[in-house]
Write a structure and sequence with these properties.
Blueprint (H helix, E strand, L loop, with lengths): L8 E7 L6 H17 L8 E6 L6 H11 L3 E6 L5 H12 L5 E4 L11 H9 L4 E6 L7 H16 L8 E8 H7 L9 H8 L3 E6 L13 H15 L2 H29 L7 H34 L6 E5 L1
Parallel strand pairs: 1-2, 1-4, 2-3, 5-7
Antiparallel strand pairs: 3-8, 4-6, 5-6
Helix pairs in contact: 5-8
Length: 318
């Protein structure tokens, strides 16, 4: 079902130490928003909302200056650094009170802002969620491309439903955001949670640009941490793999027992220490791995039962 035009759009941009790109990002986004307003696609009440995730540089001071210079810019300040996913959620939950549709994106200008028009068009066609998907990874190094694509494949293999080559560049309607608010888990992985909402969705492809300035906020260490959070938040397949591995090792032990008995009755009683040592190390390593995986899930349960707030908003500039 098509919607009426001229609805309120909010852009939500999490920021962590983004002083080097913030002014340029604000300038380009303002130009895009004004062009959409002039075309009658969005309301004049639409806004750009920057979310400061406990930055240690001048990011918040710059957001305040932007807000004071132009009411188009708004700001949300978290009480401390809570990580990208929590900062993004904080912005989305704040924006949903005022907007008909919300687009989330990073502050580094790598996401192509020119496809925002297509996001809005898909929304007016009746879509509740529109995913921004990279058409190619030509700007990435081989290592970055290999690890990033492996990340999506691993999540899907482990049972998580994620959109391939989609990060957090997406449009969500107010209705979709209200449903997202019902997901109470502390361990957030929005790329896996949003597809669970359902509703009518669409995909918009784009080419990602080089980062305008500054350093990437997602090095390999954080990517690995995000992968672990994604797998353990969305799926219990790792525990099932441990069960299957245990059954396989049990079957192998029966085979080795039969083999040892046959060798004993044949008189071949020579015993090598190599196989014994290898077996001890292999079984010990597998046991530690199994304990670690189970411990990861127990840790997640421990954090969930505390029901701590995912973010605390210290100040809102409106």
């Amino acid at each position: 079902m098509e919607r009426t035009k001229n609805q309120i759009l909010y852009l939500v941009i999490p920021c962590y130490n983004e002083q080097e790109v913030l002014h340029e990002t604000a300038k380009r986004l303002k130009e895009k928003m004004e062009s959409l307003m002039e075309a009658g696609k969005i309301s004049r009440e639409s806004r750009i909302m920057f979310v400061n995730d406990g930055s240690k540089d001048r990011t918040w001071e710059m957001i305040r200056e932007l807000h004071e210079s132009d009411p188009l810019y708004q700001g949300v300040k978290l009480s401390r650094n809570r990580g990208h996913q929590n900062a993004l959620l904080g912005g989305l939950m704040t924006a949903k009170e005022y907007a008909d549709m919300v687009i989330s994106m990073d502050a580094d200008l790598q996401d192509d802002i020119d496809v925002i028009d297509q996001f809005v068009d898909k929304y007016y066609e009746g879509c509740e969620i529109v995913y921004g998907v990279r058409s190619a990874r030509t700007t990435d190094t081989f290592f970055k491309r290999f690890t990033a694509e492996g990340f999506y494949k691993l999540i899907n293999f482990m049972g998580g439903e994620v959109v391939f080559n989609h990060a957090d560049y997406r449009l969500m309607s107010r209705r979709a955001l209200e449903e997202l608010a019902r997901y109470k888990e502390v361990n957030l992985f929005l790329r896996g949670i949003v597809p669970m909402i359902g509703f009518q969705t669409a995909v918009v492809t784009y080419e990602r640009h080089e980062r305008f300035a500054g350093e990437s906020k997602y090095p390999l260490k954080k990517m690995l941490g995000l992968a672990v959070d994604g797998i353990t938040s969305l799926s219990i397949k790792p525990i099932r793999f441990i069960v299957l591995l245990g059954m396989l090792i049990f079957l192998c032990s029966i085979v080795m027992l039969a083999y040892s008995l046959v060798q004993h009755f044949l008189g071949n009683t020579s015993i090598g220490w190599t196989s014994l040592i290898v077996s001890i190390w292999a079984i010990g390593g597998l046991q530690l791995l199994a304990i670690g995986v189970i411990g990861e899930y127990i840790g997640k349960i421990y954090l969930e039962t505390k029901e701590r707030p995912k973010f605390i908003i210290e100040e809102v500039l409106r």
